[in-house]
Amino acid sequence: MRTVLVTGGAGFIGSHFVEQLLRAGDIGAVTVLDALTYAGDTNNLAGVRHDARFTFVEGNILDAPLVDSLVAGHDEVVHFAAESHVDRSFSQVAEFLSTNVAGTNTLLDAAQRHGVSKFVHVSTDEVYGPIRTGVATEKWPLRPTVPYAASKAASDLIALSYYQTFGLPVCVTRSSNNYGPRQFPEKLIPAFVTKLLQGELVPLHGDGGHVRNWLHVEDNCAGVDLVLRQGVPGEIYNIGGGTDLSTRELTGLLLEALGAGWESVRNVPDRRSNDIRYAIDWTKMADELGYQPRRQLADGLSETVAWYTDHWVGGSRQRQSASPSGAR
Ligand code: NAD
Question: What value does the mean pLDDT take over residues 75-79?
Fold first, then answer.
């Protein structure tokens, strides 16, 4: 039976991944290591807290002795923990470098020492920078434009260097924009949904022409799981296949879903730096690992809106219960 250490598992994507992982029959133990920053919430793990194979450890990926002791007890590592919000990265560059680069190195160092059988480093299509035309394959040059993306690109490279230098079986995944239940409402979809639910205006940056590929979080997690099981060490895998939409088009869909009109939109100046378009080629995932996204945007958005309607009241999340079993 496999034992897996998941960093950042109390966050948005990590918590969905842990749920998927524990549905598999060959998993003996899953441990989440999470510092519970503003973005982490043990309520995200409510669905697995009673599973005897699950343990939650509150701690920082920069804590080398803790990381060492946890990595030592696991066969595989899936690394989601990160500072993940572009806007915050404009004012907190040092924190982003510390968590995303030095924190990744702490994990890799322990993984190499203890000889883990697979290390999946979870990254983003933002490392490719703006793609005006065409789609980026995994061989596309890295041209990140914002501190968040630059910190992720740096962590991708350090992760891959552990494969080249030490033979650590590292894979890197780069997915497009995820959406779904349980995302902290600073990112576009949950921010707009929670504001509209409260009757507030939503801010549309610039002309709203920035294009992103919107991928349901469960599809990304299924892709990460395929890479964990079958990914070739040293390889990078783009995970895409969601729906391409400009911010204006997405805003229209969210307004419709919440029964609001364009008068609920406030035009604001564009972000300090805002890439015009991201677009990835995910043929390698499909051809080599059999990946196929399953979730349709219309259903996924309805589910997401319903989740925030049920769980966010008056601008804050309804707390449901205490911390998961094994918490410390
Ligand atoms: P999130 O912000 O929801 O979750 C991050 C989690 O990491 C939180 O639970 C937080 O408490 C934890 N964390 C932060 N710093 C930590 C530290 N120093 N030690 C331990 N835990 C720490 O992020 P997310 O959206 O779930 O993203 C997860 C990963 O996926 C990130 O690496 C991100 O770069 C990547 N990614 C996200 C998206 C997206 O659309 N959200 C797309 C592509 C890639």
Answer: 98
Assessment of whether the complete model's pTM goes beyond 0.90: yes
Q: How many CB atoms lie within 10 A of CB 198?
A: 11
Question: What CATH class is the domain 2-317?
Answer: alpha beta
Among residues 307, 303, 292, the alpha carbon closest in space to that of 219 is found at 292
Ranges of beta strands (E only) in the chain are 2-7, 27-34, 54-58, 76-79, 118-124, 170-175, 177-179, 202-205, 211-216, 236-239, 243-246, 265-268, 312-313, 316-317
| pLDDT tens, residue by residue, 282-323 | 999 999 999 999 999 999 999 999 999 999 876 677 644 333
Q: Is 278 in the pocket of ligand 1 (CB under 6 A)?
A: no
Q: Which of 16, 84, 158 to mutate to test the pocket of ligand 1 (most atoms within 8 A of CB)?
A: 84
17 alpha carbon – ligand 1 mean position (Å): 12
Closest CA to 239 of 153, 172, 147: 172
Domain boundaries, the chain: 2-317
Cβ(226) – ligand 1 distance below 6 Å: no
**Ligand 1 atom nearest residue 40's Cα:** 9
